[in-house]
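Hi R.,

As promised on Friday, here is the backbone we talked about, encoded as structure tokens. Could you run it through your design pipeline when you get a chance and send me back a sequence?
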């Protein structure tokens, strides 16, 4: 079963994060054979700190990531989860990136490799998270 990879895991490796790089590398290596997926949100977040599209495309190739569009039903699920967030606690005015990522993982039945678990666990409880304990 393919695994959706959250941006924070890739950034850990790219920045050689002193706390998380080893964990993130180990997870990427352990799950490489299952098919590692990124979506437009992850791609865009990678672009934020990158010098060029070519750099980001090289990262995608280097980590053997497959780019996949977000299905419409995942976008619908993201919007509904965001509406629940707004009713409960939310101060943000537009759908947050992690809602698109969580909605994609849920709609596609993928596990999600991430370190950002708080909102994902709360608003996407059906998604299996691969995360630090």
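Update: got your reply. Pasting your designed sequence below so it's all in one thread:
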């Amino acid at each position: 079963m393919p695994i959706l990879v959250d941006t924070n895991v890739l950034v850990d490796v790219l920045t050689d994060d002193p706390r998380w790089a080893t964990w993130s590398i180990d997870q990427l290596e352990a799950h490489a054979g299952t098919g590692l997926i990124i979506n437009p949100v992850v791609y865009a977040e990678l672009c934020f700190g990158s010098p060029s599209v070519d750099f980001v495309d090289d990262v995608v190739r280097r980590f053997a990531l497959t780019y996949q569009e977000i299905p419409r039903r995942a976008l619908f699920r993201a919007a509904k989860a965001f509406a629940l967030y707004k009713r409960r606690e939310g101060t943000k005015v537009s759908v947050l990136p992690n809602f698109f990522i969580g909605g994609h993982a849920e709609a596609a039945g993928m596990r999600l490799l991430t370190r950002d678990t708080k909102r994902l666990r709360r608003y996407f409880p059906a998604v299996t998270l691969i995360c630090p304990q």
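One thing I noticed while checking it: Helices lie at 7-14, 21-31, 40-48, 53-62, 72-88, 97-108, 118-123.

Thanks again,
M.
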